[in-house]
Amino acid sequence: MSMSDPALSRQRTSLPQETLIFRAQAPLMTEGGVALGPLEIAYQTYGTLNAQKSNAVLICHALTGDQHVASINPVTSRPGWWETMVGPGRPIDTNRFFVICSNVIGGCMGSTGPASLNEATGQPYGLDFPVLTIADMVSAQAMLIDHLGIDSLFCVAGGSMGGMQVLQWAARFPARVFAAMPIATGARHSAQNIAFHEVGRQAVMADPDWQAGRYLENGTRPAKGLGVARMAAHITYLSENALQSKFGRKLQNRNARTFSFDADFQIESYLRYQGESFVERFDANSYLYLTRAMDYFDLAADHGGSLAEAFNGSQTRFCVVSFTSDWLFPTAESRSIIHALNAGGASVSFVEIDSDKGHDAFLLDVPDLFATTGGFINAAAKARGLEVTS
Amino acid sequence: MSQNVLPPPPATRIDLLLIAGLVAEKSRVLDVGCGDGSLLTLLRDQRGADARGIELSQAGVNSCVARGLSVIQGDADTDLAAYPDQAFDYAILSQTLQATRQPRKVLEDLLRIGKRVIISFPNFGHWRVRWQLGFSGHMPVTENMPHTWYDTPNIHFCTLRDFVNLTREIDARILSARAVKSSGAPMRMHAPWWFWNLFGEQAVFMLERGS
Predict the structure, then answer these.
(1) Chain A residues inside the 8 Å CB shell of B68
(2) pLDDT tens, per residue, chain B with 211 residues
(3) Residue A326 and residue A355 in one domain
């Protein structure tokens, strides 16, 4: 990596707004056997890479996340999606660590995805885009990390689909991952999770404006279908308690039922809003591809049916976190990960954090999450010989 | 930033020192019910151990993780089954046996996953306990067992003699046994069992699987 690389020259600006683009020299061979190229990866960096290049942290984003982990998102103008965890003085402290976050391939925030131009046809890929896996996302990230000249990452961290990438990184490149934090995730997608994703995909595909995936050329957008998909998925990110205490049976700006199918209840209005705002920022085909990648994830199956085999002999330090009210990735999923890690003799810490916020707890202000991960990061930094500040 | 400040190590308990003295240098150790990580820290820092733990409470796990220990939140009754045979040089159960639902199964699991098992527990046969139950007619509350009967986490008390009988039943070999007086000082080595059972407030055993 040359000193003129924008990732380094931009070190002193505290809040990077623009996205960096890495253009891979070679195509990526996907797990499905397709050579994907040209390949672009959009990413953000925060903090400064030290001379030994030993303080790099890779953050992996979830299904609808992006590279704007700790700075204003230019599309939504909202704060970065994990500013509670990543930033100056946060558990993943950008004053001490060089933080990298890239948009997954197949995504729609600048990395090559189904909305990108297919050079073979001169049209957006649409459904000609190859079906990707979590392993493919990690392969692309590894190309970016190579490009940045980093041999070994101090830490790879992420929640949900990001956590799947963390596990994939640790299984695939154990020597390149010093510490790993898979949060609110699983080593495979459960039948129930696949079922919810399938409902979402069918909602998108049932929208006539989807146009068999050719909506970009035809000037339409499957906003209704994608909105419904988001509404259904959003329920799975919350918990029954959280829904009950936040909305209950409260009515939306009215005193009585209207005897219609209007959004009488606050929860209906809330979900409609979630669906409508999501379609403003997300590409429907990306949603199909990324949910598919999660469905295909089964780390044990990739290792002869044994999850322990995936981590056998790993020297990586793991910190696994789950939340009590997360029914999308319940604690049992994390337990099967730690049992596999223990069976392989890996160094693993695990905590189940008490929270009623459901799966989304990992994105929210949950002090116990910061206490655990902050302690883990500090101890790992000490073991790595990195500066530990108080 | 407060979460970066490590908690000060608590005053070291006598039984922890006694256990640490049984652990060979540079061993692989699993402490089941490791609390805030005091023993694991001692073993790591003074014995160079590869120290791992299981702890039920989130606060305990947080304290351990902040100390750089590899500790998982879990339960001796349910989470030992996942560990492979002979995975550790020592499996330690310190002041936890009496709080497990199935002490016998826990002990058998420990003997399976540890080449050696070190176990400490309060002796229900201590004279003060016998006195409170026998003469005062109420469930004992002592310094070591400070809970009243209705709010105690300790559901499976045993005497030192009961424990020795259990080791015979599950075919465990006793490699060493120490009783600790209420002062915390170890009792002299060659006292007879009945004496230990009466005057030992706590016991520390080291076991291995019988042949």
Answers:
(1) 375, 378-380, 382-383
(2) 334 444 434 445 777 888 999 999 999 999 999 999 999 999 999 999 999 999 999 999 999 998 889 999 999 898 898 888 999 999 999 988 998 999 999 999 999 999 999 999 888 888 888 888 888 888 888 877 888 989 888 888 899 899 999 999 999 999 998 888 766 677 766 778 888 888 888 889 999 998 7
(3) yes
**pTM of this prediction?**
0.90
Note down the domain range covering B168.
13-209
Of B4, B52, B87, the CB nearest to A378: B4
CA A338 to chain centre: 21
Number of separate domains in chain A: 2
Q: Is residue A389 part of a domain?
A: no
Interface probe with A: pick from B28, B55, B58, most Cβ of A within 10 Å: B58
Is the domain of A105 the same as that of A177?
yes
Residues 48-67 of B with CB under 8 A from A: 52, 58, 61-62, 64-67
A271 φ/ψ angles, rounded to the nearest 5 degrees: -65, -40
End residue of a domain, out of A273, A293, A313? A293
Pair of tokens at residue A221: 């957008």
Count how many domains chain B has. Answer: 1
Residues 6 or more apart in contact with residue B145 via CB below 8 angstroms: B122, B129, B152, B154, B157
Q: Do B4 and A388 touch (CB under 8 A)?
A: yes
CATH number of the domain encompassing residue A52: 3.40.50.1820
Domain that holds residue A312: 6-188+299-384
ipTM, two decimals, is 0.81
The alpha-carbon gap from A387 to the nearest alpha carbon of chain B, in Å, equals 12
